[in-house]
């Protein structure tokens, strides 16, 4: 609604203003100059001889502008503050492709840092933090020693704690929410060069939080725990014997798979409803299940059996490296 009221109000105000100036040009110079420089003030002037129709049009425009601004402040306080501060254009974050939402608000972090065992992602376009996400591994530090962090809602064990902060308006305290589990997290960090680190993250919280984050990023300084993880990996490789087993057990026959076009699945999801699908993410994790549908956020939904229940997993298309379909016989 506010996207229509604000521009419509501005157009009506400008049209009424121009109309008022054109009409008063036939009258005294002083009235014409006053209408040209302070047109909206004529709405408060009575008995000055200004015509009613152009002032009525300006009044409608002012009311539309005020109503649109009110709804913008109510629905999107961050956008309203950006307009008031003069930030008409929002520049994308430099050096990364991260995007998502925090409690329904757009989240494009421009600062990604490690503080001890905490991964901190912040969005501060004007020097003031508007939204931030902190992933605390203090209670789940063993996850950092694995090649990649992969957590699904049904996984047991310790979970990193999430701290969500978001902007709620210039005159209100920032929102704060703590989440300790029941979310999906895929985090992969790889050292590049001497001290730089490339990472990929995919985070998806339950629908009630309206929060997700996906994309790639780069760190200019490697976190301290990476050296500990790399040392652990070297010790594991040294301890693994290179002798193959003498009597390997025969492997059961696996179904035949054929590569599937991701674009075809996204364009015509009904054609693949009920198909057995195998997904390989960029972090190397493989998921196999029955394709059900595309979610309203255009995520691929797979149904996996978990005992007597069914679990639905949501995957962002950007996180999928390979998608395959079981050959139907």
TrEMBL record:
It comes from the Bacteria. The chain crosses the membrane at residues 6-25, 32-50. Keywords: Membrane, Transmembrane, Transmembrane helix. This is MFS transporter. It comes from Halopseudomonas pertucinogena. The lineage of its organism: Bacteria, Pseudomonadati, Pseudomonadota, Gammaproteobacteria, Pseudomonadales.
């Amino acid at each position: 609604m506010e996207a229509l009221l604000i521009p419509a109000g501005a157009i009506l105000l400008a049209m009424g203003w121009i109309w008022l100036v054109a009409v008063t040009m036939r009258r005294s110079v002083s009235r014409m100059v006053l209408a040209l420089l302070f047109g909206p003030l004529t709405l408060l002037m009575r008995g000055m001889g200004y015509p009613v129709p152009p002032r009525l049009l300006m009044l409608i425009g002012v009311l539309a502008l005020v109503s649109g601004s009110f709804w913008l402040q109510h629905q999107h306080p961050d956008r309203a503050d950006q307009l008031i501060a003069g930030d008409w254009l929002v520049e994308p974050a430099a050096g990364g492709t991260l995007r998502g939402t925090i409690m329904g608000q757009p989240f494009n972090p421009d600062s990604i840092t490690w503080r001890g065992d905490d991964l901190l992602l912040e969005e501060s376009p004007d020097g003031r933090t508007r939204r931030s996400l902190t992933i605390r591994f203090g209670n789940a530090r063993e996850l950092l020693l694995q090649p990649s962090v992969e957590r699904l809602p049904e996984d047991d064990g310790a979970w990193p704690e999430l701290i969500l902060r978001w902007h709620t308006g210039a005159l209100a305290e920032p929102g704060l929410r703590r989440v300790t589990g029941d979310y999906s997290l895929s985090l992969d960090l790889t050292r590049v060069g001497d001290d730089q680190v490339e990472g990929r993250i995919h985070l998806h919280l339950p629908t009630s939080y309206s929060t997700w984050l996906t994309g790639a990023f780069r760190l200019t300084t490697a976190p301290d725990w990476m050296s500990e993880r790399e040392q652990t990996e070297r010790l594991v490789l040294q301890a693994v014997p290179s002798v193959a087993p003498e009597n390997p057990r025969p492997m059961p026959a696996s179904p035949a798979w054929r590569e599937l076009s991701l674009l075809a699945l996204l364009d015509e999801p009904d054609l693949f409803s009920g198909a057995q699908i195998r997904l390989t993410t960029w972090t190397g994790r493989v998921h196999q299940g029955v394709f059900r549908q595309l979610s309203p956020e255009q995520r691929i939904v797979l149904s996996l059996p978990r005992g007597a229940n069914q679990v639905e997993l949501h995957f962002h298309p950007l996180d999928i490296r390979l998608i395959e379909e079981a050959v139907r016989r």
